[in-house]
Design a protein that fits this description.
This protein has an eight-stranded mixed beta sheet, sandwiched between helices. The N and C termini lie far apart (37 Å). By secondary structure, it is α/β, with parallel strands linked by helices. The protein is 38% helix and 18% strand. It has a single domain, classed as 3-Layer(aba) Sandwich (Rossmann fold). Helix 1 runs parallel beside helix 2 (37-43). Bound molecules: NADP nicotinamide-adenine-dinucleotide phosphate. Residues 7-12, 30-32, 52, 65-68, 70, 73-74, 90-92, 131, 133-135 line the site of NADP nicotinamide-adenine-dinucleotide phosphate (NAP).
Length: 211
């Protein structure tokens, strides 16, 4: 599959490396694509670097891994390229980094962080994923054999998109727990049940069941 990565930092970079290793064609992007040469070299022949627009356009699935506060701005720039595609949202709302837009969602328990992405990319199928895992664990705990894998929660409003993301995460060696729709994704948000808590699928299912 062709996969475009918007934001090739700690999460986008490591996820892209795993996807390239799994055999996908990955386009890493940056506002300064020339600075991605080392990452592309590390990823090997399945990867290249481009602009944010090129990554959004070339991917049949797109990964959004940027500071939360920048989501509307990036959607303005490249939203049209993501129409009809699955968009993985790894972004977390941190008021100290992202300002008022994050403060608002943190203060209101009825709002969901990822609703900003859904609203900013209305023609994409947004799946919240990879936002709960610390990048070091993403880097170091992929491609584990069955029986010793970590699980990652996902949430989204479209089943076909969640299936696509589940398959990708399985390919790179993670189990997956589908927590439901975006409305159900509170458990994945900063400081909530599944945030930065490495767990097996069984542990995650147990934690979800005992809520
Ligand atoms: N770090 C973690 O362990 C972790 C874990 C889970 C989720 N997250 C979340 O995932 C997202 C990415 O985190 P990260 O740690 O990977 O961040 P990061 O290493 O700082 O990378 C973020 C990337 O976003 C790009 N970016 C920044 N401003 C932009 C803009 N205005 N337009 C387009 N691209 C922009 C930057 O690319 P260029 O400067 O090259 O353009 C940068 O490489 C954040 O929302 C974070 O909260 C982080």
């Amino acid at each position: 599959m062709n996969i475009g990565i918007i934001g090739s930092g700690h999460i986008g970079g490591n996820f892209g490396l795993h996807l390239a290793k799994a055999g996908h064609q990955v386009m890493f992007s940056s506002r300064h694509p020339e600075q991605l040469a080392d990452l592309v070299r590390q990823a090997g022949s399945n990867a290249q670097a481009g602009t944010i627009a090129q990554a959004a356009d070339s991917g049949s699935l797109v990964v959004l891994s940027i500071p939360y506060g920048k989501i509307p701005e990036v959607a303005e720039q490249v939203g049209t390229f993501v129409h009809g595609k699955t968009l993985i949202d790894t972004c977390n709302a941190y008021p100290q980094r992202d300002g008022e837009i994050a403060e608002r969602v943190r203060q209101n328990p009825d709002l969901r962080e990822t609703q900003l992405t859904v609203d900013s990319f209305p023609m994409a199928s947004v799946v919240k994923a990879l936002n709960t895992i610390y990048f070091v664990n993403l880097r170091d705990y992929a491609f584990r054999p069955e029986g010793s894998r970590y699980a990652l929660p996902i949430a989204g409003n479209r089943e076909t998109a969640k299936k696509e993301v589940t398959d990708l995460l399985h390919e790179i060696g993670f189990d997956v727990l589908d927590v439901g729709s975006i409305a159900d994704s509170k458990v994945m948000e900063v400081d909530q049940l599944f945030y930065n808590k490495p767990m097996s699928l069984q542990e995650m299912q147990k934690a979800a069941g005992s809520r």
